[in-house]
Amino acid sequence: MLEYFRKILRVLKIKKEAERQGQAQAAPAPRDFDASLDQNLAFFRQRLGDSSDIVIKEFQIDGAGGPRCALLLIDGLVDQENVNLSILKPMMYEAGLKMKADHTGRFDIAALSREFLSAGEVKLLSTLDEALGDLFSGQTILLVDRTQEALSIGLRKWEKRGVGEPQTETVVRGPREGFTETLRVNTAMLRRKIKNANLRLETMKIGRQTNTDVCIAYIEGIVKPGLIDELKKRLDAIDTDSVLDSGYVEAYIEDAPYSIFPTVGNSERPDTIAGRLLEGRAAVIVDGSPFVLSVPAVYIEYFQSPEDYYIRTYYASVLRIIRVFSFLITILAPALYVAITTFHQELIPTKLLFTMTAGLSGVPFPALVEALIMQVMFDILKEAGIRLPKPVGSAISIVGALVIGQSAVSAGLIGPFMIIVISITAISSFVVPAQTDSLSLMRYIFLLLAGFLGGFGVIMGLLFALTYLVSLKSFGTFYLSPILPLNKQGMKDCFVRMPLWMMMKRPFTPASENDVRRGPREAFSERKGG
Amino acid sequence: MHGRLKTIVCAALAALALLSSGCQSARELGDLVIVMGIGMDGDREEPGNIKLTAQIVLPEKISSSQDGGASSSGSEGPYYNLGSSEKNTFEAVRGYTHMVSGKLYIAHTQVFVIGSEMAREGIAPYLDFFTRAKETRPTAKIVISETTASEMLGVKPQKEMLPAIHISQLVEGQMVNSQSKEITLLDYVKAMQSTTASLIAPILRIEEKEGKQVLSVSGMAVFKEDKMVGELSGDETRGVLWVMGEIRSAVINVEIAGGIASFDVLNAKSSVSPTVSGGKVAVKIDVAASVKLAEQTCEENLATQDRIKELQALAGEAIRSEILLAYQKAASLKADVFGFGEMIHHRDKASWREIEPDWDRLFPEITLDVNAEVTIKSVGSLERPAWDKTDEE
User: Fold this and answer.
1) Cα–Cα nearest to B184, from B130, B137, B232
2) What is the SS3 assignment for A293?
3) Alpha-carbon Rg of chain B, whole angstroms?
4) Which residue of B has its CA nearest to A365?
5) Rounded to a whole number, what is the distance in Å from the CA of B139 to chain A's nearest CA?
6) Is A356 near chain B, with CB under 8 Å?
7) Nearest to residue A184, comparing CAs of A285, A74, A77, A268?
8) Each residue's pLDDT tens digit, B325-337
9) Residue A225 preceded by cis peptide, ω within 30
10) Which one, of A408, A326, A410, lies nearest residue A370 by Cα?
11) Residue-wise pLDDT tens digits, A106-127
12) A14: contact with B, CB 8 A cutoff
């Protein structure tokens, strides 16, 4: 016990130190541009070191004799051809005649941008730190001697993956595009879906070392009131070195970081995210990740596929129910099997009991151990299947299938019924894909409960899980809504998917200002009548 | 700091709770000694002892015999019967642990076969253990065997692999002819609760057919309290079931036009209203049955308005006579198999309190008023017998 307290004290000390360091690093005073180009370049050279990908090009307006300038850019992030065409060429050959220093001996750099630069995105910079930041996000920086400002010119171009079909949420009917790693491409995809002035995309930088662009997307007037303030507050509070994927951001903004249930949603599909924005939620797009976060998250969203809205109501509803059913199978089937075979054999139909008993003859392990062996074996195979290099994949899966399906039974290690149970469990787990991680954890928990306490344990586990889920909130919205608290509008899109024209209002509580989804009933019935 | 300590303590406690509860009642499937049927006899050598016969399943043999595997000599089949004789049931059941690898698993036990000899002496002390045991199914059937129960459980069935399952299915199948009825452990408990109602239970007999022993169920044993006092024949049993409204299917034969017409009962309802006046009990029984003509052996076409009316009256009379027959038998045994006493108890508590001590004397003197209404709903796929060649206009 004493040892334990010491450990805690040590942890606390480290925490304090980290806080102190954080304060020391925060907020260095912004440095202004020096009037001298050489001074400015010296600053950049010192800050940038001699990284091979940084290009500093010095030139003079209108060739020799003109005012001295310098271009700073990062090779690989900038379209060099375009730099030649729309910066160097006009400035070196055309600008000189008109560029004159005013009486203070300074250049009007804004005029330069207005009159000579044909690049579209040009921004005036006033501090060196701004310039540094822009440089790394792919901007070209133009410094001119005897000016205390600089131009940041957007001529970005880098190798990027094209828009492809999303790997995780495939649909049969529906758009086939998925988000990519590039923030701009992702925001453009949202814009294309929601052509509306009220779609707001606010960008900030997170990550002390990585300076990753993070973009909040929402629809003004539809978004749940207060959500954006809360989201910004949480994002601003992130103080971390690096953001390499949206998962990093998720970890810092989720409501219940210790929970096995995700309280921040994500999707790879622009249509899904657009749909959520239109429900009054907000999205967080992180540069470098094709997974876009959405908040608040509700549990039922893991059972909703975008395809549900594209196919017809009845089948969509059947699919929803099948998904809920598979969800139950995947968390409970091994547990129930173990509970029934070790505690409640009276529940097994008599004739099945004989065959099951016969199948188990010679199996040396208790059902719980058997189930754990199989479950771990399957999880290993699954993990191997994901990480394997493609050419080896088929070989391993054949070996896996043979080992698990055949040899384990004939060797008397596992009963044949366990194979059936684990297989159906495994298959069902992929029906609710966005949740595989928490499902597989729950499966193990229930399995242990069933092995030790039988059906009683399973029931206790379910009660506990339910109580816990009811208490969870994501950004002020109850995790189990619209079921608890019951929301009539939300229930139309819960276990069944009602026809789109019946979903009159947005599903969230508290309702946003503009919560009507479609025109008045009369207008619709007229159309239907016609 | 405090919070974290708390979580750790909580987790440790939860883990302890899980581990210490440790699989107490857990039993692996492979370790079960599955008992499908239990026979109960009095021990001839040591009077007062109970001799249990447990039919224990060998599951491995069931699945291997499906592939046609050869079975060993002597007692074939995927089971073996094992006897244990002790002073009481519990001790006899526990006695098996000396002989088999674990406690008997009686949750799947389908039938309790009770030897008639023992049944005449009273079954309550011996069944008490099974009605208390939480494993026992209340739907397990009770069967009285004509000879010893161990003999019955030893008769190898032709189709089923396990005698116990065969017996259980045999009893279930009786609802087709309604000449016997399945009685479960729950029925037994209910009957024991009542002061006057008598338990009836199907009787299992062994018959020789083509040189082989065959089990058959017919008639029912009548109990007074927990002691068997007599038997109802098949027809008498049906008489009882008409009154109880428990006929689902039955065959009624009537003689007509020099032959026999048979009816299949489609459904039947009964209403029984007992009245007590001046220390006398009168019971009015109305039975309404709808039937279909299943067979005729006479030449004449019976599917005419007149004949049908006649047939309906005859069939009604047949039902009536069965009921009266049953009552006569019950009266001679002084056993209220119909549950008239309970009915009065429910309807007229005050007068029941007066006549209850006298019920044994009153029951045989009940004035019965039996009415049976039979409706012929159908004459089958043929409108007239196939041999009837007359053209119809």
Assistant:
1) B137
2) strand
3) 27
4) B28
5) 12
6) yes
7) A285
8) 999 999 999 999 9
9) no
10) A408
11) 667 777 777 777 777 888 888 8
12) no
- Asked whether the beta carbons of residue B108 and residue A361 sit closer than 8 angstroms, the reply is no
Amino acid at B350: A
Query: Per the CB < 8 Å rule, is B29 touching A341?
Result: yes
Q: In this complex, is the C-beta atom of A446 within 8 Å of any C-beta atom belonging to chain B?
A: no
Quickly tell me which residue has 């692996």 as its tokens: B28
The torsion angle over the Cα atoms of residues A452, A456, A460 and A466, rounded to 10 degrees, is 120
Non-local (6+) Cβ contacts of B174 within 8 A are: B180, B181, B182, B202, B217
- The dihedrals phi and psi of B124, each to the nearest 5 degrees, come to -55, -50
Measured CA to CA, the distance from residue B161 to residue A84 in angstroms comes to 92
Q: Considering only CB atoms, which chain B residues are within 8 Å of A366?
A: 23, 26, 28
B18 to chain A: closest CA residue: A452
Buried (b) or exposed (e) across A272-298, using 16+ Cβ within 10 A?
bbbbbbbbbbbbbbbbbbbbbbbbbbb
Q: Assess B105–A contact: CB distance below 8 Å, yes or no.
A: yes
Question: What residues 74-113 of chain A have any CB closer than 8 A to a CB of chain B?
Answer: none
> Chain B contacts of A12, Cβ < 8 Å?
1
> Nearest Cα to B270, choosing from B133, B391, B368?
B368
Residue that the structure tokens 């998904």 belong to: A323
The one-letter amino acid code at A315 reads Y
Q: Say whether residue A265 is in contact with chain B using an 8 A CB cutoff.
A: no
Phi, psi of B227 (to 5 degrees): -110, 135
CATH class in words for B233-393? alpha beta
Which stretches does DSSP call E strand in chain B? 33-42, 50-57, 79-86, 104-105, 111-115, 141-145, 200-209, 212-224, 227-232, 251-256, 259-277, 280-296, 367-378
What is the complex's ipTM, to 2 decimals?
0.84
Beta-carbon contacts of residue A11 (< 8 Å; ≥ 6 apart): none
Q: Where are the alpha helices (DSSP H) in A254-406?
A: 270-278, 313-342, 350-360, 367-387, 390-402
- A483: Cβ contacts below 8 Å, ≥ 6 apart: A300, A491, A494
Beta-bridged to residue B213, according to DSSP, are: B208
Residue A336 burial by CB count (10 A; 0-12/13-18/19+): exposed, middle or buried? Answer: buried
DSSP A241-275: S---SHHHHHHHH-S-TT-SS-SSEEES-HHHHHH
Q: What is the pLDDT of residues A183-202, one digit of tens each?
A: 999 999 999 999 999 999 99
A448 CB neighbours in chain B (<8 A) are 18
Q: Indicate the domain borders of chain A.
A: 37-154, 183-297, 331-466
Question: Looking at the predicted structure, is the pLDDT value of residue B19 above 80?
Answer: no
Q: Does B1 sit within 8 Å of A356, measured CB to CB?
A: no
C-alpha R_g of chain A: 30
Task: Kindly compute the dihedral angle of the four CA atoms of residues A331, A336, A342, A346, in this order, to the nearest 10 degrees.
Answer: 180
A219 within 8 A of A281, measured Cβ to Cβ: no
Alpha-carbon distance B371 to nearest alpha carbon in chain A (angstroms) = 43
Residue B388 token pair: 């009837």
Contact assignment for A342 to B21 by CB distance below 8 Å: no
The pLDDT-based confidence of B72 (bands split at 50, 70, 90) is very low
Select from B28, B78, B135 the Cβ nearest to the Cβ of A346.
B135
Average pLDDT over residues A164-176: 88
* Partners of residue B28 in chain A, C-beta under 8 Å: 341-342, 360, 366-367
- CB-based contact (8 Å) between B1 and chain A? yes
Q: Mind telling me how many Å the CA of A1 is from chain B's nearest CA?
A: 10
User: Nearest-CA neighbor of B140 among B110, B175, B167, B107?
Assistant: B110
Domain coordinates in residue numbering, chain B: 28-62+75-232, 233-393
Q: Give the number of C-alpha atoms closer than 13 A to the C-alpha of residue B292, restricted to the C-beta side.
A: 10
